[in-house]
Amino acid sequence: MDINIRSIVLIGIALVVAGVAALIARSLVTNPEAVQVVAEAPEPTYTEVLVANKVIRTGFFLKREDLEWQNWPMDNINPNYIQKTSDAVAEEQINDVLGSVVKLPIVAGEPVLNGQIVKPGDRGFMAAVLTPGNRAISININSKSGISGFIFPGDKVDVLLTHNVVFGAGDNEFSSEVTETVMKDIRVLAIDTFMNNETNTPTIGKIATFEVTPKQAEKVALMSRMGELSLSLRSLAVESEDDEGVARMMNNQARTITYINDVSTVAGGNTELGNQTNKVKKVRVLRAEQAQELSFTEARVNN
Questions:
Q1: pLDDT tens sequence across 4-48
Q2: Distance CA 217, CA 138 (A)
Q3: Does the reported pTM lie above 0.90?
């Protein structure tokens, strides 16, 4: 008897629960807005990072027109990205990287990473500045050879060599000073340890560093032992390519030489110096039974 009563109670409870569930389901179907529990995703937050607005190749200096700020999601920020601190200091942050050299190529829209650039004064900056295949080499300069400090990094110069040249032979042998333009259109990389001059004021350095080809580097090493090297500053204006003489000089195909008699006709007591001062050579000419000795001259440079 107790079992039947218990069963009836359980069945009644089940029917009540089923009825309540049915009523809830019916209300949800007929009025879906009554219960709407949908978890909305939080809106992403953004910051601004410094990016390249065009392709920047290895070895190029960063300029203001190469860079811009771009929105970037905060959940995708690399610690090496350059993030804008505030609008007030945004330009200062850009100025801080201007003049840096790109070590690895940067594509348009890619953030500028601290590891991709080398700032002036940082280790490896000189190697990053060099054109692939070229070398850096230094020479000693002074106020005279360095044009009183008016040569700045980035300028183009010609290199002049003043040294002693031996002319003639035997009893006629003598030496004289000669100046030659031995290299032309050479880029100055640094004066002393500075690769820029922000104040643009003349400073007299002791060492000038140039960008040269491997062969030119060998020449500079030898010339520094042969005599005194001087620098001649070139104009920033592009020289006319229609000038055949200038074109040859730009290609290092012509060499300019100044002899002592071009400066003074009485220097050394000899007025036949320069192109007319030469090494004497003799040739013995036989015609039948007669012998005749002829002489001709040839310049000889002792280098």
A1: 677 776 777 777 777 777 777 676 666 555 445 555 667 778 899
A2: 9
A3: no
